[in-house]
Give the backbone structure.
Amino acid sequence: MNTRILVTGGAGFIGSAYVRTLLGPDGPKDLADGAGAVTVLDSLTYAGSLERLRAVRGHPGYTFVRGSVCDADLVDALAADHGQIVHFAAESHVDRSIEAASEFTRTNVLGTQTLLDAALRRGVRTFLQVSTDEVYGSLPHGAATEESPLAPNSPYAASKAAADLIALAHHRTHGLDVRVTRCSNNFGPHQHPEKLIPRFLTALLRGESVPVYGDGLQVRDWLHTQDHVRGLELVRTAGRAGEIYNIGGGTSLTNLELTHRLLALCGADPARIAHVTDRKGHDRRYAVDHTKISTELGYRPAADFGAALAETARWYRGNRAWWQPLLSAPAQGRRP
Ligand code: NAD
């Protein structure tokens, strides 16, 4: 069946990687030919950038619509024209949610509800909710499976957990084909320099120190964006309705271990580490078990972490013109 896919937040870090893959040479077979195959809906907040979509700009199957997932009329009109929705659009930075949470609730919760309403009304076949392992909260040991309880701690994580539950309720109540994915920390090119890896790389490339929160012993699992994109495609094309799939990268590091790797890649001295006051409510450890997507759908993270991190560092070294202006962008709010 030829599918038209509405990708929300497709001008963001992961959404744009997904769109570049859908419309690239190895794109899926079920995509509609030509016009209307992939529509990106993105409001272009400070985090959105059309530069990330430069590679697909002239593609006949690509359409860009600037607008919000909270705009019910716009979302309704778009849902009428698309068979599937892959929902990335979100406020995504934990630190910002600690400063001011209301935009997180508006976009992440009400925006998801607006999309679900339209999906139901317009008979959208599949709704893929892209979520995060942060909904499971901090785990002293072990790894979260899809059955683990939700225990989000930051306003960001709470807004994603709320959106996941609302989306799954639309499956149970209305029979909408909702699939939820929960991935670990993504890395790769084109990530906004507010996030840990690009923040540290861009600081090191400018000769500055790197601010490590607290003792730096917080543990995170790292997932290359392309592995995430592969996992999402497996779930979109072969996953089951009403199911949750964790997507992990298989590389677990403390923030301090990661920082030392970044220092080494930039030829910088460990003296550049500056320990700063810990983030409020900082989760100590995340870990996801991705056995379900592996056994059911054949997912395996393919990226070699060391090589992918080195390639990411090279990308930031070679693309200063992309990230430099983002460092001086307004701290909050939408672009004019
Ligand atoms: P991002 O911040 O880079 O991109 C978010 C995109 O959404 C931006 O292009 C922004 O303009 C757009 N957007 C924001 N509000 C919008 C609105 N109201 N209407 C339409 N568009 C809007 O985020 P990302 O890192 O690419 O994350 C994508 C998704 O993956 C998010 O849902 C996030 O919660 C989830 N996720 C990300 C990570 C990660 O490591 N980056 C990890 C787990 C889950």
